[in-house]
Each structure stands twice: as C-alpha cells, then as structure tokens.
Design goal:
The chain is of the alpha+beta class.
C-alpha cells in the first residue's frame, strides 16, 4: 500500500533519472469493478501544471515517479469530465462511511495495486494522518498509525461548490430512510440535496420527512423544482405543508404550482391553519367509509386504493356515501376480525371525542390521553370531517426539536 501524502511533492524523473517536475496530484477515473483507478498524474514545473498518462509510468513509490521513457510528453493539464483529483477532491473533504452510517473527513488516501492498476484502496480518517501531512517528511514516520475506512464502504461526495453531473449513491440507497436522513443532516444543503434527489420519489419523501427542520428548507432550495414537487407529492400532506411553510412564500408558491392539482390543494389547505393548533397538526390523508358498508367492502376499498395512507390504524365513518358528516370511527383491527357482511355502523365507536381545527395542541394532547386515542378526528362546526391528528404528531409538536427526530414514526 502507498500513502498519497508520502508521494505528493516527490520528484518526477525520466527513465534516466533526471528530474523533470514534481508530483502535484494523481488523477483518478471510475472503472466498473475496480473503483477509482489512477489514470494519470499532474506534474508541476515552476508554475505550470502538466498531465502525464499512467501508461507512461514505470514506478510510483515514496521516492517519487519514474517514467519508462526518456522522451516524456508534457501536456498542459486541463481537467476533463469524469476525472477526480485525489488530493484536491478527496483529502480534507467529506465522504460517507456507509457501513458506519456517518459522514467522515478524509486526512489521507491509501493506494494499492490491483490487476496491473493502482486504485484507491481506503481513506485514512485518523488524527495521525493529519499530523503526518503537516510534519516534515523526515518526521512523518512517527505518525504511522492509521484509521482506515475501505473505499468499497465509501460514497464519494462531489464538491458542494463545483458544478457536477447529478451523482448516484448506490450504497446509500440500501439504507433505511431514517439512516439516510441522519447522514443528510450532517451535510451542507447542496450535497444533502444531491443525495435526496438520487433516491426514488417515495424513498426521497420518507428521507425528507425525517430530516431536521433546519435542513429541510435548505435541501429543497438546492433541488430542481420539478423534482422537488414530485417528492412533495409523495409526502404525507401535513408533512409537506409543514415543510413548505418554512420556505419563502414565493418559493412555496412556485413548488405548489408545479405539484399535481389535487395534492397541491390538500397541502395548501393545511398551510392555512396556525401552528400549535389541531389544524396545523392534522393530515387530510385518511380513509372514510359510510356506515352502511360492510367489513368486506371496507377492506376491499383499502386493498384497491391507489393513494392509500402510509399507515392506517382507524377508519372514519360518515353518515352515507358521499357525505362528509362524521358519525363514528372504527379501528382497522375491528374491521379485519368482524364478520365480512357485518355493517360498519353496527360496531363502530359513535360517541368519540373530536376537536376543531383551532383547538390548541395541549388540549388535543389532553383529550387523546384522556380517551387513550391513537388518532383523533378534526371537524368543523357542522361536524364535517376535515382531517385527523395522530398521537406521534402531537408528541413531536410538544417535545424540544433535539428530541423529535429520535422518536419512531408510529403512525406514518
């Protein structure tokens, strides 16, 4: 293995041993099944930078670079698309250690030969690696301890300041959305947005829902608006409304305009309610059945719904088909165990507590605790159902921000 810090600045010699330049950086390219492979080097002579292809290199060691030929073509260095500079783009930059589910900072790069090539084998994140770079070369051997992370366990992050083609993160895509959200919270908004955009819409929506409030707005601002609108459509309406309310009105309006009409209307309606109220907490994504329906009809509805809520624990019951007047509520478990032909109205809970959209959050919590409710319906003055509030949303609202993201999402 070879440490990048111990070859940078070393002499570049021709086949006869004459020094023609010093090594400024190594150039890497992604190759299938081989990872990041060295494809050339950047040599410095005076103030000029030159590119030298790897095919001309006879040896790379701590003594420097030796070329196989006496004739070396020094081409002025111009960075090309797809190239990664190992020192400039990796050292002192953030990477993602997927195995340990965290963001790391690279202090050195470890190289190793593989099938006739030299490729990145690992990165050193230890403090000794930083000292090794800063110390005089004759003292660097005192800092030989290494804390290595295998390159195969790493997702590389393009610089947040340099324009890049949209990257993919195949290793991150295997993680649970909550784990991805923890990583996204540690990154600058530009890099965080790259990760969210790389995911499928449904998974991206789950990740964005779990990201901290401070990070959510920054992620959205750094995303393509059409892509952001697609992801918002996949989120629960209350989560999307909360997120958009943290943006500038102009930005929120632009995203709503790009969303599908039905989803946009649901989200916009929720945004009109004040924070700290039942209306500000409720979701308009719930399941309604008429009391005349049978248990088998209700289950068939759930089975074939195209836009089914992520988690369903209770069904709201209305007076008759097409009505919005709430008459009761029934748990999904009761529907499942009921006789298939039993009417919903025969075993629903009729005298259930409800709240108005302007009910204070603390009062919502009190009523849910008093009646031991997982969800509570929100109705207007005429008894028309507007939405439901889930217990986890109440708990999140009443806890300090630093505790909120540690709680599991119990009801979607």
């Amino acid at each position: 293995m070879l440490l990048l810090s111990r070859v940078l600045g070393r002499p570049v010699r021709d086949a006869g041993g004459e020094v023609i330049a010093t090594l400024d950086d190594l150039v890497g390219r992604w190759q299938p099944d081989h990872g990041l492979v060295v494809s050339g080097l950047v040599a410095k002579s005076g103030r000029r930078l030159f590119f030298l292809p790897w095919q001309q290199v006879a040896d790379l060691s701590e003594e420097g670079v030796r070329f196989a030929s006496y004739q070396v073509n020094l081409q002025p260095f111009e960075r090309r698309a797809g190239e990664v500079l190992l020192a400039a783009d990796i050292v002192d930059r953030r990477l993602i250690d997927v195995r340990r589910r965290k963001v790391i900072r690279v202090n050195d790069v470890v190289l190793a030969p593989t099938e006739g090539r030299v490729a990145v084998y690992a990165v050193d994140i230890g403090f000794a690696a930083l000292l090794r770079r800063l110390a005089p070369r004759w003292l660097s051997h005192l800092f030989s301890n290494m804390v290595l992370v295998a390159w195969s366990d790493v997702e590389w992050l393009p610089s947040e300041t340099e324009p890049q083609a949209k990257p993919s993160f195949p290793l991150l895509a295997r993680l649970h959305p909550v784990e991805v959200a923890h990583i996204v919270n540690e990154l600058p908004p530009r890099q965080a947005a790259d990760i969210v955009e790389s995911l499928e819409d449904e998974e991206a929506a789950e990740v964005l829902s779990e990201v901290s409030e401070e990070q959510q707005a920054g992620v959205l601002r750094n995303m393509d608006e059409e892509r952001a609108a697609d992801i918002l459509e996949e989120m629960e309406p209350d989560d999307a409304a909360d997120l958009l309310s943290r943006l500038d009105p102009q930005d929120a309006g632009d995203l709503l305009h790009r969303m599908e009409d039905e989803e946009a209307r649901d989200v916009q309606a929720l945004m009109e309610y004040k924070e700290g109220t039942a209306g500000g907490l409720m979701t308009s994504h719930f399941v309604v059945v008429p009391q005349q329906w049978t248990a088998s009809q209700a289950l068939a509805l759930l089975r074939w719904m195209e836009d089914r809520p992520e988690t369903v624990t209770h069904l709201l019951v209305v007076e008759q088909p097409g009505s919005e007047h709430l008459v009761g509520m029934v748990s999904l478990l009761d529907v499942v165990v009921a006789e298939p032909e039993a009417e919903i109205g025969s075993f629903m809970v009729r005298d259930l507590p409800t709240v108005r959209p302007d009910t204070d959050t603390s009062e919502v919590a009190r009523r849910m605790a008093e009646y031991n409710l997982a969800v509570i319906p929100v109705v207007d003055e005429s008894g028309r159902v507007l939405g439901i509030v889930a217990v986890d949303d109440v708990v999140e609202e009443m806890l300090p921000e630093r505790w909120r993201r540690r709680l599991p999402r119990l009801f979607g």
